[in-house]
Design brief:
Layout lengths: L1 H7 L3 E2 L5 E2 L3 H34 L11 E6 L2 E6 L1 H15 L4 H11 L11 H9 L22 H13 L14
Antiparallel strand pairs: 1-2, 3-4
């Protein structure tokens, strides 16, 4: 911000009355206020991390629920509860992966069926693979979740079979052959 003010010939006024550019005692006070503001960022980060750790330790969800779940409060803690959409689509999605359907075909089926991503966008292969198929929450275990209670939408065996099917598929993309510069 100081650099911008210098580059553009501007002055800065902050709420405690300090003005930049400044020299002498005001300059020392500006530097102190700047350092204090800078220290607030790691302090906020540490408090937020501690708060998340405490909530997870109590079994409470932190953050947004994965697709097919919603957050509900039970006995004072937030937990993931499956939605009707999750109960209907998630087992079918995993079965389609196991049966060899392409992620593109599954995405098209979800779009045609009216199922939307959390952002309301059309489905794509990356969303299916990284946010759904690989996510252990669907067999009842939350990443970084402590002792969160989560109802499974598929069995761990189904989850493992779908992930094994995904891993065994041939990946398109960049090859290993290096081409000479043009």
């Amino acid at each position: 911000l100081e650099q911008w003010a210098d580059d553009n010939g501007k002055s800065l006024l902050i709420t405690n009355g300090l003005v930049y550019p400044c020299e002498g005692t005001d300059g020392a006070m500006w530097d102190f206020a700047k350092r204090q503001a800078h220290q607030e960022w790691p302090d906020i980060s540490e408090r937020y991390t501690r708060m998340q750790r405490t909530l997870r330790g109590k079994g409470s969800a932190v953050g947004r629920a994965p697709w097919g779940y919603r957050i509900v409060k039970r006995d004072g803690v937030k937990v993931f509860a499956p939605t009707d959409e999750g109960r209907n689509f998630v087992p079918a999605i995993y079965q389609m992966v196991i049966d060899g359907k392409s992620l593109r075909d599954i995405a098209a089926w979800l779009d045609k069926s009216g199922a939307k991503t959390q952002e309301g966008n059309p489905w794509n292969e990356g969303t299916l693979c990284n946010r759904l198929i690989k996510n252990p929450v669907y067999y009842g275990e939350r990443r970084n979740g402590g002792n969160l209670e989560t109802e499974a939408l598929v069995s761990i065996t189904t989850w493992q079979e779908a992930n094994a099917a995904m891993s065994s598929r041939k990946r398109r993309g960049r090859g290993t052959v290096k081409l000479a510069p043009a």
